């Protein structure tokens, strides 16, 4: 914090530093290395030496590299033999690699010689699309439980599978992620849900027993509908995030208020199924800043067939305009109630009471500022058209505004995701 004027420390045991630069940030590992590399692997210090290297990660930021390594072999993994006779620089690289989490994150790059050093079989595991810990999985994941969430994120975003020992250990130690502070948990969840791999992340979190710890309400929903751990079918929750993924990417993320808003809408619909036109009119009203009259007029002209596989949606009921308006306002209240319940320890605990076979969790990772941001997305439906609000009139997404939490951009993408889920585009 003495080095950077605008930074935030995340995590307790293995802290990292978010250095804010304009509207984005760069992750810097602690302790601050002798040579700092930015996200693209270029040295910030142009006067550095040719033997400087940085640790490469296939999914995370560029990591720090310790330039002092004592010749003490007692703490090194037995899975990788001592390189024996080698110079000090090679020994430092080797020892640094053994301190990383996964083999695919244990590669080192010399940007001057353009060489990649691989001491743990990381390149081979990348070719095999495999996530494997460098040290024994039980030791590695117990040492730092954040690695469990990082493993899920890597597998989801890249479509990798887990090596058997790593998979079994993740499932056995899934409950240990509660040791992490809530800020770190929110950061990890945002990495999973806001960068184009939300559906795959939710499936893996459910498969390995992490969803009931991190998102207990959504885990209770999957239990309620009888969704199995390795179930390859879909449901409305997964479809919503699948359609969100189609609009995002690792370099085109959304603000975390968007995925929380989607969770809130789904909870309201799973608690009380609605007519598809009610959901459509509600989404249109959110999109246009609370102009409910216009939303009702447009929704009543919809003649598309909705997805009948979702139990959260009723059959069309040919509602009168006044009745449709009342039901939209009721849905708006239900969604706001859902946002509140997701941030209330008692409500989360009560949801888990119907799920006794899962480890109890009353964890709430949504802080007050995020709660208020999500409420602001929906409050316009009840309050009426916002003065000066200008909805988008094109389908193009401004990803910089979306990542920063621009209200109009978040509402625009929210409405698109909901419509694509309720009225899926068919081949015809």
Q: Would you tell me the overall average pLDDT?
A: 85
Provide the low-confidence segments as ranges: 31-52, 69-74
Strand order of the largest sheet: 1-2-3
| Succession of helices and strands | EEEEHEEHEHHEHHHHHHHHHHHHHH
Sheet with most strands: 3 strands, antiparallel
By DSSP (H or I, 4+ residues per run), the number of helices equals: 18
Query: Which class best fits the helix and strand makeup?
Result: mainly alpha
Query: Shape from CA axes?
Result: elongated
**Number of DSSP E strands:** 8
What is the straight-line distance between the termini?
Answer: 57 Å
* Share of helical residues: 40-55%
Radius of gyration: 24 Å
In what range is the share of β-strand residues?
Answer: 5-15%
Q: Which features characterize this protein?
A:
428 residues, mainly alpha, 3-stranded antiparallel beta sheet, 18 helices, RNA binding
What would you say this structure looks like, in words?
The chain has 428 residues and is mostly helical. 46% of the residues lie in helices and 7% in strands. It contains 18 helices and 8 strands. The strands form 3 sheets. Strands 1-2-3 form a 3-stranded antiparallel sheet, with no helix packed on it. Strands 4-5-6 form a 3-stranded antiparallel sheet, covered by helices on one side. A hairpin with a 2-residue loop joins strand 2 (16-21) and strand 3. Helix 4 (146-158) runs parallel beside helix 6 (182-193) and helix 10 crosses helix 18 (407-422). The longest helix has 22 residues, at 321-342. The chain is elongated. The N and C termini lie far apart (57 Å). The model is unreliable at 31-52 and 69-74 (pLDDT under 50). Residues 96-132 form the Poly A polymerase head domain. This is mRNA polyadenylation factor. It comes from Lithospermum erythrorhizon (Purple gromwell).
